[in-house]
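Lab notes, practical 5.
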Amino acid sequence: FNDIESILIFSKADLVKDLESFHKIFDYYRSINYKVYLLPNDAIEIKKEIQNNICVLAGQSGVGKSTLLNALFPDLNLKTGEISDKLGRGRHTTRTVELFRCFGGYIADTPGFSALDLKDMNKEQLRDTFVEFRNYECKFRDCMHHKESKCGVKEALEDKMILQSRYNNYLLFLEEVEK
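Output from the prediction step:
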């Protein structure tokens, strides 16, 4: 959607309790051709992504966007919050968008969000953003991979070729878009 390349960066993997599930998710996104990085291990590769580009850190409140920037660029000394025992993630600390120049490029630190606004997306655009769905043939060309029969995506889901959590997210987003 909008031809924006998404790159996934895991910045707080040290807090993960179920490493097997974490690696399954990490490897899954790589298998569907997302660039996936782990901080601090991949700091050099992440810096190369920023080089000569305009990048935006986006994600839920408290996932570690400012922590990521501090790890890559310690001189920034951005404010970060403590990990909440209740939420299992950081607390919302960034209040405004800040743009930083680095490596010949720019990177924006943004406030986190608690909900997605999908009002400008139609259901076909949503379906097409799930890149792995394109790998499976369905009986119907306009299949939405939900209630249709002979759906290649649902068959792939049953065969564990698609992550159940990713498909569940798709269904939640689809319901939102259809409203």
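Observations recorded by the TA: DSSP finds six helices and five strands in the chain. Strands lie at 7-10, 35-38, 54-57, 98-102, 105-109.
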